[in-house]
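Help needed: design a sequence for this.
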């Protein structure tokens, strides 16, 4: 029987159990939070991103989740600088061209406010009175390095905060930051 662990990864935590570099208190790993032997992340979530990380001991499942050829949908809550225009959001829906080629079309919508159940981030996102921000929900079916951040930058709206909310059918619902549960 395979095990699937859902973890709400806090900001600043590496998506691995060990750090290849010298020990540093500012480079936390999954080992600080998850004590389930034999599970490994199915895909990655950057150190400066938060949210759902799926871990499993099932190699084929891990490949289905992580391999972009499988087109497993991943949904992100993205806080961006300024309010994206309808044209900017349409560009994401059509697919934008990054340095490593065009992206697949994304599903995107402007959110009415902060995502439901949003926790405070430590450290907090920089706040500028003169520059508004906005939350968008973005769903992609690939997983290139820092793809969401590069996509929002391409349309002129740099990412301030990035939270992965959904991977396939799994979500963050009911999962506090820094906490894991078996799926």
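Sure. Designed sequence:
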């Amino acid at each position: 029987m395979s095990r699937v662990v859902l973890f709400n990864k806090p900001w600043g935590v590496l998506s691995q159990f060990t750090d290849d570099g010298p020990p540093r208190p500012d480079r936390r790993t999954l080992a600080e939070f998850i004590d389930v032997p034999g599970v490994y992340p199915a895909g990655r979530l950057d150190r400066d991103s938060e949210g759902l990380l799926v871990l499993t001991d099932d190699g084929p499942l891990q490949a289905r989740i992580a391999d972009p050829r499988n087109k497993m949908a991943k949904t992100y809550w993205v806080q961006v600088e300024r309010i994206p225009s309808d044209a900017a959001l349409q560009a994401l829906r059509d697919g934008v061209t990054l340095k490593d080629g065009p992206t697949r079309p994304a599903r995107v919508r402007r959110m009415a406010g902060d995502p439901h159940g949003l926790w405070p981030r430590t450290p907090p996102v920089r706040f500028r009175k003169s520059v508004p921000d906005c939350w968008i929900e973005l769903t992609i079916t690939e997983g290139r390095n820092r793809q969401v951040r590069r996509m929002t930058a391409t349309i002129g709206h740099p990412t301030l905060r990035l939270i992965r909310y959904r991977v396939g059918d799994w979500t963050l619902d009911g999962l506090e930051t820094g906490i894991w549960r078996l799926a």
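The helical segments are 59-66, 86-94, 147-154.
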